[in-house]
Design brief:
6-stranded mixed beta sheet; binds inosinic acid; Rossmann fold; binds magnesium ion
Length: about 180
């Protein structure tokens, strides 16, 4: 795997520190509220697990699965729901937990979809943000890192379902997907 990585963009230590910061903020912002974290499978699993451990107030978690990419590195712009929530979110304070905002198409769709379930509030926490590629307008309350427009893998992010298990975020060598 390592030989396919051009450069480590964010180390395990950098990720851990930032996630701790976000967890502290969420714990403060949602104290006394009915917090539900909704992870977007599968890219957000690492972030979700580490973030939850840094949240010091009661919270529950749920997951949705959507498809936007297939195995290519460019978004198709079409979002399909593969797995819906297990629980109702009406009246709850929901934070969507996502690995990366790229075009923003997936989150825009998800936000509208979840809004229709009448949560009390609905915000977004995304570990990474690629501002250069935005097509849909999206406001995320919590963002870990703004990243340049490279195809990134590791810490949950995949290329054709591979590399999710790298403990850091790396830039994938172009010859791997070209
Ligand atoms: P969007 O709808 O274009 O914002 O796409 C968001 C989804 O595409 C993310 O949740 C990721 O699963 C995937 N994605 C976007 N950029 C990358 C990347 O650099 N590496 C791996 N997956 C990515
Ligand atoms: Mg994703």
């Amino acid at each position: 795997m390592k030989e396919d990585i051009k450069e480590v963009l964010l180390t395990e230590g950098q990720l851990g520190e930032k996630i701790k910061e976000i967890g502290t903020k969420i714990s403060r912002d949602y104290a006394g509220k009915d917090l539900v974290l909704v992870g977007v499978l599968k890219g957000s699993v690492m972030f979700m697990a580490d973030l939850m451990k840094q949240i010091t107030i009661p919270c529950s978690m749920d997951f949705m699965a959507v498809s936007s990419y297939g195995s290519s590195t460019k978004s198709s712009g079409v979002v399909r729901i593969l797995k819906d929530l297990d629980f109702e979110i009406e009246g709850k304070d929901v934070v969507i937990v996502e690995d990366i905002i790229d075009s923003g198409v997936t989150l825009k769709y998800l936000k509208e979809y979840l809004d229709a379930r009448k949560p009390k509030s609905l915000e977004i926490a995304s570990l990474l943000n690629k501002p250069d590629r935005r097509k849909a307008e999206i406001h995320a309350k919590y963002i870990g890192f703004d990243v340049p427009d490279y195809f990134l893998v590791g810490y949950g992010l995949d290329y054709a379902e591979k590399y999710r298990n790298l403990p850091y975020i790396g830039i994938l060598k172009e010859e791997v997907y070209k």
